[in-house]
Write a structure and sequence with these properties.
The protein has helices at residues 44-62, 75-85, 98-102, 144-153, and strands at residues 14-17, 22-24, 32-37, 65-71, 90-93, 106-111, 114-119, 123-126, 132-136. By secondary structure, it is an alpha+beta fold. Strand 8 and strand 9 (132-136) form a beta hairpin. The protein is globular, with a radius of gyration of 14 Å.
Length: 154
């Protein structure tokens, strides 16, 4: 695993969202995008992270930031996640994990003694010109939103 770094261009991509609509990163040129990768919808850590972003959405919008979450889940599961947790931002289905690989966040993980490949919980703040402004890779799920807000406010 080798995540993209600050100053690099964010790879352009198009994925289906929770409503089966194609969403492209290029659609958001001129805006900042918080692109956060998470392992699996409706799991405890991912739910905590998503709900805190949901609750911070207005503040992030005031800072001109669009939130997009990416996981290997399919659009149907993402729609259930959105509905059950009243999420108010874009969720993208990266079922073949190609976008996760482009961003360097797909790789070996260890959980409860098992070793497997999966998405690492890393977020990228992409600037208005499509460059990675900041990489967030050291945070607890319950603090992710605050780490991002603290960075944006500085």
């Amino acid at each position: 695993m080798n995540p993209l770094k600050q100053g690099e261009n964010a790879p352009l991509f198009t994925l289906l969202n929770q409503h089966n609509e194609a969403i492209s990163l290029a659609d958001f040129k001129g805006q900042k995008v918080l692109l956060y990768f998470y392992p699996k919808a409706l799991t405890p850590g991912c739910t905590t992270q998503a709900c805190n972003l949901r609750d911070s959405k207005q503040e992030l919008e005031q800072l001109d930031v669009v939130i997009m979450g990416i996981s290997p889940d399919n659009p149907k599961k993402l729609a259930a996640f959105e509905e059950k947790k009243s999420l108010n931002f874009i969720l993208l289905a990266d079922e073949d994990h190609k976008v996760a690989e482009q961003f360097g966040v797909w790789g070996e993980k260890k959980f409860m003694g098992r070793i497997f490949d999966g998405i690492h919980r890393i977020s990228f703040l992409i600037d208005e010109n499509g460059k990675i402004e900041k990489v967030f890779d050291k945070f607890k799920t319950g603090e992710h939103h605050q780490v991002v807000l603290d960075y944006l406010r500085k």
